[in-house]
Design goal:
mainly alpha, 2 domains, two-stranded antiparallel sheet, 49% helix
């Protein structure tokens, strides 16, 4: 983080993903100067690094962000933004709790209990990247290795579920 001069949120307890019902990464949420969400959970990318995986051009998202910052042009009105992303399902909520418990147990040296709760979290929310992929390094796995590509294949086979607004606004 040398040289970074802006605030960086390190969400080790995954509170932000719970508050904003985020289950896929990367995800962008646009919040204005009045702390109002003007664009909820959105599948935006800053670069084309993941274009092969997503099929999404970063330039479209970057242009939309520029239009918002420069012209105040939002992708949806305030009422649509409030209701655009539904709540997590009961299984997804339970998965978040199991993830938190697993992380707490791991931090306190209970590897067996931790693994049991990571397994439960991943089983309850199999396509939630904030759980499945985030647990990989915590469990000694490689979040860019074979396990990641297995998750990616499962995600594709399930129709690429995304808990948020999917947009390809030109």
């Amino acid at each position: 983080m040398d040289g970074i001069t802006y605030p960086v949120l390190l969400d080790k307890d995954h509170v932000v993903t719970e508050l904003y019902a985020i289950s896929n990464v990367p995800t962008v949420i646009l919040i204005d100067g009045d702390d109002t969400i003007v664009q909820p959970n959105w599948n935006a990318y800053a670069t084309d690094t993941f274009k092969e995986f997503t099929g999404i051009e970063s330039s479209n998202q970057l242009d939309a962000i520029r239009r918002w910052v420069i012209d105040g042009d939002v992708m949806m009105d305030a009422e649509a933004a409030r209701t655009a992303v539904g709540d997590l399902s009961a299984d997804e909520e339970a998965a978040r709790l199991h993830f938190r418990l697993a992380n707490h147990l791991r931090t306190n040296g209970d590897e067996v209990g931790s693994e049991r709760h990571f397994d439960r979290a991943c089983g309850l929310a199999p396509h939630d990247w904030t759980i499945r992929r985030a647990s990989m390094p915590l469990r000694g796995g490689d979040p860019f290795g074979a396990e990641f590509f297995e998750l990616y294949e499962e995600f594709n086979a399930a129709g690429r579920p995304y808990h948020g607004v999917i947009t390809e606004r030109p």
